[in-house]
């Protein structure tokens, strides 16, 4: 059984996989525009297709991991955008989300501890 904590914003995601062998951490980053014309007007906020492409990359990685359950969080609007993306494009992943919430910026070690605490608590309540 694999449980995954996903911390996401508009340009990067940190995934912490909790397995019987211990937690594993990985970071995914937005690769930027695919075509040189996408750089035009870069003084403006990130174009929607950039975000969609990035969220697709994160969702594809999650499909590869195939978690039993997920805890999704973040510090900014990327959290809401990612959850909306899952609802539209990857409902099979959205059904695995136990909780989605904003949480403060955390170091890698704090993120691992935060997720471990959440999943331990969730499993205690599920066993009742």
Largest sheet: 5 strands, mixed
CATH class: Alpha Beta
Cα distance, first to last residue? 19 Å
What fold name goes in the CATH topology slot?
A: Nucleotidyltransferase, domain 5
Shape: globular
Number of domains: 1
Order of neighbouring strands in the sheet with most strands: 3-2-1-4-5
Helix content class: 40-55%
The proportion of residues in beta strands is 25-35%
Q: Write down the Rg.
A: 15 Å
Following the backbone from N to C, one meets helices and strands in this order, namely EEEHEHHEH
Detailed description of the structure:
The protein has 128 residues and is an alpha/beta fold. The chain has one domain (3-126): eRF1 domain 2 (Nucleotidyltransferase, domain 5, 2-Layer Sandwich), CATH 3.30.420.60. It is built from 4 helices and 5 strands; from the N terminus they run βββαβααβα. It has a 5-stranded mixed sheet, sandwiched between helices. Helix 1 (48-65) packs across helix 2. The two termini are 19 Å apart. The relative contact order is 0.21. The mean pLDDT is 88.
